[in-house]
Amino acid sequence: MVFKGVFIALLFILYVQMIGKSYIFVAYAESFSDNVFGGVFDAVIFGSKVKIPRDGCVRSEVFRVSVISPGSFGTVVFMGNLYTPYPVYVKIYRSDDSLIDSEIINRSGFFNIVFRVYPSSYYIEVCSPDKESIVSGIIQIYSYNDPYFTLKTYRYHEAYPTGVSDYGVYYDSDKGSFVSYSYRADKALGIAILYNFYSKFNYDPISFQLNSIVVPGEDYRNTLMVQLVVAIANISSTESHDRLLVSYTSAIFNVSSLCIYSLEQDSLYGNGDLVGGVRANPWCPAGYGYIYQGYREFNVDKSSYPLIIAQLIEVQDNKINFGLGIYGLLDFQYVDTVVFRKLRNLSISVNGELSSIQPHILEYVMAGPHSLKHIVEPEELNVTMALYTYRGDIWTLPISAWSLGRLTYEMVSNVGLYNYGFGYAEYIVGSYDQVMLWRLQDPDQAIYPGIYILMLGASEPRYYLSTEIGSLSNVIEVDRYERYVLTNKSTEEFGPLKIVRLEYRYERFYSFRVLTINGTEVPQEYIEGYIDRRGEHVSPGWLHIDPSNIASIYINGVEVKPRRIDVGEGLINIEVPLAVLRVQIKDLFGLPIPWGSVSVECRGKVFDSSVTDLYGWTEIMVPLDQECTIRKPDYGLFTQIAIASLSIAVASLIYLLRFRGGKTK
Prior knowledge:
The chain is mainly beta and 665 residues long. The longest helix has 28 residues, at 637-664. The N and C termini lie far apart (165 Å).
């Protein structure tokens, strides 16, 4: 690029507005030239007071379009205000040099070009047909509410702020079109649960940005972009990387006028400062060129993972409150309050409706660290993110949410959507995915932003974002044989969050089958219970112990030690030192005892009992690991009949002898 002179000035501000992506580009030049200097933000754009030669043109690549969903093209509004002393043409080209549209600007004026975009690079060209001219101004680009589109600079690919964003638009599959909506909110809350993060470059932080558009009343001339940014960086060696640097920044920009970014020097006050150094356009009033920033940083141990980060932006008439908490590390507190001297009736605005004003979005995104090193590429990442709004005196989810952001310049690459559910999204290392996360059927659904901390068994805590406290039941069924049962529940307030700690006990369902050494099943009515090695009583059904640790079984009051335990799917086979003996019971005279009651007594307790058959046979269970006694009747039925018969015969004989003796006498 050849420069012919030196001119150090703010060249131009291009506020690229598209539902899929947004950049704020600021470029600087060192000369008037037929070419345009690309600036520090990796995009070639027009600058203020760019010299257009007579019968000449200046061209620059403005943006690139990537279509995420095949066939999902969109309509773009390309509009701006150009200041020129002589008429110029504004032309829009695709990369194949095909002309899309053009407009003539007579001296100073507004242009508005609407056209259909396809996957391509797009160029803007300004031509001066008659006289040499100097052109300056602002150009805005935004789509007809089509979040499938994104703008890319030509230098980076697959790099976006990603998270949960409300564009004020959702895709209605029934209608086959996008539907826009708008609302005002008093509070916006972003929640991130960071399980793990490590970047390729050890000191590159990742940031979590809660970005909102705030307007005073209906006055869009003072549209503010408000940010609360939390940055997290590895600060130790690559080998251990066990410490983190956590910092937060509260920031306010004016994005509504030609003096973009700029705030008046005495327009507000807070815990931070109005920072100068933002170059205003030459026609801006004196005193512009300030943005508001507050900043703080601290170190934490990486052993503190996972980090639960809560970021809050709250508006109250002429105040903006910034709330921040990192659960377990930093109690939730209002870290900054900004008071405006002139603006009133502030509110967070989401507006996806088409108008001459840029659509207002609300986003909670994961991005790179800062504008000078604006992209980060994680090697390790696992984070869950959610976004809530407070409107109408209730907390609720955005009406619809998308996985990409656009209000911030910083980006992340190598980040993919792992899965998503109603109310949150989870991101890990992977390929980028741009989708609509959810759409509320009932926009006024009241919820309480909460986090479940689950202690499942003896495992590490597992964290879940939930939109309904109490949606997890006391019993979590895994399958027909496995479940978790709630044993303890505690709740604590953490700023606008409700943290619920649920401790669950792991259980498996088992039925028991007790077998003797010869394979005979012991009737269940004989079994009184099981004792594990800790002395805990165990019953068949849902167990939270290891069934292989069963130490003994009580059978009819007698303790028996198991020989072998086989644990199957829902069934435990226990072999015990018992034997089923088939015996014939005889009396003292060697005669079988039919229908006799027989019992086995062990240590004074009856272990088993049975009744013999007609021939004196029976089966009875006998413990083999202890001394027991078989109790049986001394005389069986046959002996008793024989004795009875003998007694009758003897009695009859005595009677006869006595009778006959009488006769003799």
